[in-house]
Design brief:
This protein has 12 helices and 20 strands. It is an alpha/beta fold. The longest helix is centred in the middle third of the chain and has 21 residues. Bound molecules: inosinic acid (IMP). Inosinic acid (IMP) binds next to helix 4.
């Protein structure tokens, strides 16, 4: 049966979605990236070569797979061309890539404004990746954004640049930052347009056609649901919605076409950037987890903050995404941890709650209430079925299922493809 499968992150990003996407991509006919830009990043090992993808979908290594960068994305054309070149110089020349004509363009002034806004926010800074993502989306909703199709027409691009630049330069000049002229950008961005023209099309029409042909479609996630502009820990979020709900809008398909939503969850939790993180802990155990799990940002290299698994978060994310299965990642990293904790609820001003308060100050005051589980010492990296897991590890997983009310579809015991155990057929 053909299927439309969504991979989403259930935490604050970096859950290991790349590995699951890479694993499932080979069973898909089309791989679609729907939102965000080069703030995302994952590493794929292909033919013993390491590739860092920030914008291009993970199906790119298979010449039979159609890869779509959909309308909900914000694309830095310079970064995209560098990514394409990096693939080509390492022999990946036979690929199918399509870019939505409606996707928005990240311009250099967006990157400058991203830094400027962070400076102005001072100690309340979001800790963005400084890739210009927020300002590019801000221009989109302000209706002054530049879209991929605009790069293909000198007149259109010129007119749009005049308007966008007027707004950007007012802000930049007020803070004595570099301002931009239409002339310096026009030629460069038209050239990017010429280089990318062969990939740009109406990807919604293409995708719907593939669906009509009965093809398997994989929507690969970027960021995590807790970074959602609507349902995340606002204002410490990204500027798009990394949820299954956003897929139809961001790709141009009908909502009832999605039939599987896999929530990728680390066996613990991490977060990069600022913002409340109730289950965060800093001690020898978190240092060991960071070291063994190689918990450093793919895009910025920043050390990730470490916390325990949070069921209040997971249940919130299940609710807004309609999860049909969980992918539990980096289970092997917990080997040797004596006592593993799961947060089951919060205490807010002395009252027990099981939801995430909208008020950020209230969320900051939430103290996690934990249950503790005995850990395991056995090496699990060669485990290839649920039954082979140590009893305490099985117990930990069963409790995650029981508490989240979502079945585990996949678990992962190491970075390699073979270290992935499927408990359910996804496609
Ligand atoms: P922005 O998306 O660059 O605007 O950053 C906003 C917030 O989202 C910051 O806390 C970033 O660290 C976080 N963020 C953005 N993309 C990712 C990602 O791919 N993984 C993890 N965190 C991310």
């Amino acid at each position: 049966m053909n299927k439309r499968v969504v991979i989403i992150g259930t935490q604050w990003g970096d859950e290991g979605k790349g590995k699951i996407t890479d694993y499932l991509a080979n069973q898909a006919d089309v791989v679609v990236r729907s939102q965000g830009g080069n703030n995302a990043g994952h590493t794929i090992i292909f033919n013993n070569n390491k590739f860092a993808l920030h914008l291009i979908p993970s199906g790119i290594f298979n010449p039979n797979i159609i890869n779509i960068m959909a309308n909900g994305m914000v694309i830095n054309p310079q970064a995209l061309l560098q990514e394409i070149d990096a693939l080509k110089t390492r022999g990946i020349t036979d690929f199918k890539l399509y870019i939505s004509d409606r996707a928005h363009v990240v311009m250099p002034y967006h990157i400058d404004l991203d830094g400027l806004f962070e400076d102005i926010k001072g100690e309340n800074a979001v800790g963005t990746t400084k890739k210009g993502i927020g300002p590019a989306y801000a221009d989109k909703v302000s209706r002054i954004g530049i879209r991929m199709s605009d790069l293909l027409d000198e007149n259109t691009l010129g007119k749009k640049l005049e308007v966008s630049l007027e707004f950007a330069n007012i802000l930049l000049s007020a803070k004595n930052c570099k301002i931009y002229t239409k002339e310096e950008l026009l030629a460069v961005y038209l050239e990017y347009g010429r280089d990318l023209k062969k990939y740009i099309c109406d990807t919604s029409m293409l995708l719907n056609k593939e669906i009509d042909f009965g093809k398997n479609i994989l929507f690969e996630g970027a960021q995590g649901s807790m970074l959602c502009i609507d349902h995340g820990t606002y204002p410490y979020v990204t500027s798009s919605s990394p949820t299954s709900a956003s897929i139809p809008l961001n790709t141009g398909i009908a909502p009832n076409l999605i039939n599987e939503v896999i929530g990728v969850t680390k066996a613990y939790t991490t977060r990069v950037g600022e913002g409340v993180f109730p289950t965060e802990f800093i001690d020898d155990v978190s240092d060991t987890i960071r070291k063994i799990g190689k918990e450093y940002g793919t895009t910025t290299g920043r050390p990730r903050r470490i916390g325990w698994l949070d069921m209040v978060v997971l249940k919130h994310v299940k609710r807004i995404n309609g999860l049909t299965g969980l992918g539990i990642m980096l289970l092997d990293v917990l080997t040797g941890v004596e006592k593993i904790k799961i947060c089951t609820s919060y205490s807010l001003d002395g009252k027990e709650i099981d939801y995430i308060p909208a008020d950020y100050e209230q969320y900051k005051r939430c103290v996690p209430i934990f249950e503790e589980y005995p850990g395991w010492k056995e090496n699990i990296t060669k485990v290839r079925s649920f039954d082979e897991l140590p009893e305490n590890c099985k117990n930990y997983l069963r409790n995650i299922e029981k508490k989240s009310e979502v079945n585990i579809a996949i678990f992962s015991v190491g970075p390699d493809r073979e270290q992935t155990v499927m408990l359910k057929n996804i496609f």
